[in-house]
Amino acid sequence: MQKNHFKIVVIFIILALAVFPRDAETAASEEKPDFKVIIGEWVRSDGGYIVRIRDVNPDGSVDAGYFNPAKINISEANVSLWKGFVKLFIKLQDKGYPGSTYTLYYYPEKDALAGFYYQAAIGQTFEVIFLRKKVE
Cα(126)–Cα(10) distance, rounded to whole angstroms? Predict the structure, then answer.
């Protein structure tokens, strides 16, 4: 009798492990954040630097532009979720900016992107804030 009880418990655990991960995956897919919320033009609060987000693709890649005030080449731009925040990562690859990066987090209550700018040429990191440019 105990052997049958043990087998039933083992079968139940195996079935639970097989079923619950699918339910968790389904719930996670239903709760995907709206990454498109970052689409727009963003102006850095301490100068004329502009990040322009044109689109966010399903794979997390971002169609973005960076200007200071001329266009600066972006080698990588993507969006992900980090601790409940929409996270935007941009890597620059241009004269004066080789390997410099932005790691920004979207704060919906302020409609702002805030985070860090790593200036690779001098090896320093700065706290930065970008505010959405209002459409006129």
Answer: 54
H helix or E strand, kind and range, residue 87: strand 85-92
Residue with tokens 């009798």: 1
Q: Contact 43/58 with Cβ under 8 angstroms?
A: no
The torsion angles phi and psi of 3, rounded to 5 degrees, stand at -65, -40
Report mean pLDDT in 10-residue bins for the chain, 136 residues.
45 42 43 88 95 97 96 98 96 95 97 98 97 86
Q: How far apart are CA 91 and CA 77, in angstroms?
A: 6
As a whole number of angstroms, the distance between CA 88 and CA 36 comes to: 11
Q: 0.90 cut: is pTM over it?
A: no
